[in-house]
Every structure is written in C-alpha cells, then in structure tokens.
Amino acid sequence: MTAMTKEDIITLPHPHLRETSMRVSAPDETTATLIKDMTDAALDWEDSRPHEISAALAAVQIDRLERVVIVRSDFDDKASREFTALINPEIVKYEGHIVADYEGCLSVKDVYGKVPRHTKIRVKALDIDGNEVRFKAEGFLARVIQHEIDHTKGILFVDHIKEDTKAFYRLDDKGELEALDYDTHIKDNHILWD
User: Fold this and answer.
1) C-beta separation of 109 from 49 below 8 A
2) Is 176 in the active site?
3) pTM score above 0.90
4) How many structural domains does the chain have?
C-alpha cells in the first residue's frame, strides 16, 4: 500500500470539511492505519513547504470523518517528525484569556488568519491503546488543539474571523505574513464560504 501524500489532503470547498466527524468506538488496527496515513500526508505536505511545519492534522483532512487528530510532538524542531494521536478529543474546560494569533490550515489554501482562542484548555481524549488521557495545554499547543477539535465539528479557522476585515493574511515569497485586502480576496470568496 502506498503512503499518503499531500495530494490526499482535501481543501475547501470540499463539503466534508463542513461535516461533523463520528466518534471512534474503540481504537483498533484501522485507527492505527489512519494515524499512519495522517502522519504521512502531514509530513509530505511539510516537505513541500520551506517556511512551515505541519503542526497537526485531523482525520477529516484526509477525507475520513472520524474524530482523530495528530499533534506534532515538538513545534520548534522541523527535524523532529513525531506526532501524538488524540482520539475523540474534547475540551473539558477553557481557561486563561482569549488572544488573537496567526493560524493557517492545510485545508485552506493560501489564506492565514489572526484567530481569537483561549490561552489555556483542559483536554480529554483516548490514546492509541484506548486509554483515557487528560492534560492541560497552553499557548501554541492549546491553539493547535482548539483548531483541530474544531475540524472534528466541521468548523474551520476562517469561520471564527469571517466578519473581521483585518484578520486575513497570506504568505509572501520570503515566508512573511502580509495582510490581504478583505473586499478583494475574502468577502465574496466562494471557496472559503460555500
């Protein structure tokens, strides 16, 4: 069986990105294969992007409507290619305060946004062996997990900032974010909203 690649990652306006994923009843071999496929696709995407890492991926992004996400184990080291799988993840408590910061998404091409999220969360999930895990996340990790759990509910980061005319960006050739003109690029962009 061939490894999944970046071409297997679905992007807007694919309708499945707006659907709710189903709970995994009990992690099994199929779940392990799904996690490997997700990891392969995320790393292949990353290998094609000189200025970015693949921070995380939800199963829906490879067109599997299951509540499984993978989160990079080390965001600061591109050489570290390990991910942690969270099955049926849910946020049990929001803490800290709300801060707007930059986000991108492998399923939203060429658009980035400054998205408000909680700075701290408490999370409950299953690991690959079906054991319940609970942990606190803060900062960038908390942001990433909120983004991925949104995917399992059919929500994309652009939905949080739809009305914010100053929240949209793109990456220039040097890997720097530059503001997008809302009226020209965002407001009537049928790919983002249909």
Assistant:
1) no
2) no
3) yes
4) 1
